[in-house]
Each structure stands twice: as C-alpha cells, then as structure tokens.
Amino acid sequence: MWIRRAFFSWLFPAALVLPLWLFIGWGVFQAGGWAFLWVLFVALPSVLVGEVVLALLVRARPAVREQRAVSWRDVIGFTLWHALTVALGFFPEAAFGWILTATIVAFLGLFWSTLWQLFKDVAERGRAALVIDGDTMRASSYGDREEAVRERARQHGEVIVITETGRAGDGRSEH
C-alpha cells in the first residue's frame, strides 16, 4: 500500500521533475542545438501538460481520493512512462528514436487506462448511489425517487416523509 501512496504523492512533483531532467540531461550529455530546440519547445511542454492531465484524471477517481493511493495499474503505467522519460533524458544517439516512440506509446496507453478507470469508478459509484439497504431504486426523475421513498416507508416503517405544500410565488404554505 505504501508504494501506491507514494505514487499518489509523486504525481504532481513529477510534472516539474521530469521536464527539468530532460533539460538537465540535454546539458550534461551535450545533445546539441536541435535537441535543445526539441527539449525547449516539444518535450518540456508535452511532459509537463501530460503529467498534469494524468495526475488530475487519477485524482478525480473517488476510490483514489478515499484511499489516497493509486491503483496497481497506475503504478505499472507511471513506472514505465517515467522510466522511459528518464531514459530519454540521457539522449542516447543509437536508440533515441526507439525510446521516444516507446515513451509516446506508454503515455497514450497510460492516458486511456486512466480514463477507463475513471469512467469505471464513476459508473460503479453511480450504481451504488441507487442502492439503499438492498432495495434498488430504479428512478430517473425526482418524483419517481420520492414515490420510491414513500413506498419503502410504507413497507418498512423506517422513513418519515414530510411534504410541504404551498402556492407558488408567495412563500406561504396552505394549512
């Protein structure tokens, strides 16, 4: 569990650390002028924006917010993407194109995985919200839900429903 929580805490700092590493790697490994332009105008903004978008998608999931931990699928995806981004910062001449392609594919896979997990989690929460003590309320409008609550109250005697009646607009109720 501590690994998943560590990744939860690492998501936003990674948005600054990884682009910074690409910039430092360019300088340390003397990648050249064209690489500098690529780092400055393509890599830095792409990694920064991509990491922030992924972090927001992950943190939008109710299960992640409750546990303050990412899923194991997220751990694997972020580990792969971050490792490839770090490898890209070494600017290896022979394998740069392959590593760049793998990094882009890893990001796209992680993006779709994160999006799918978000939709799945939200859909499960939506279904769970319609279940009350084992009784499923299959209602689509407020009136239907109100009727379902009244029916449940009649059956179980657990719920008291107070309905306010009044004329529209004057704020007074009828007695």
Report on the structure:
It is a single chain. This protein is mostly helical. It has 2 domains: 2-129, no CATH class; 131-165, no CATH class. 72% of the residues lie in helices and 2% in strands. The protein is built from 6 helices and 2 strands. It has helices spanning 2-28, 33-59, 62-67, 72-88, 96-129, 142-156, and strands spanning 131-132, 135-136. A two-stranded antiparallel sheet has the order 1-2. A hairpin with a 2-residue loop joins strand 1 and strand 2. The longest helix is centred in the middle third of the chain and has 34 residues, at 96-129. The protein is elongated and about 75 Å long. The N and C termini lie far apart (59 Å).
Helical element count? 6
Instruction: Find the structural class using helix and strand composition.
Output: mainly alpha
Q: Helix fraction?
A: over 70%
Count of folded domains: 2
Order of helices and strands: HHHHHEEH
Could you tell me the radius of gyration in angstroms? Answer: 26 Å
Strand content: under 5%
Rounded mean pLDDT score: 85
How far apart are the first and last residues' alpha carbons, in Å? 59 Å
Taking the sheet with the most strands, its summary is: 2 strands, antiparallel
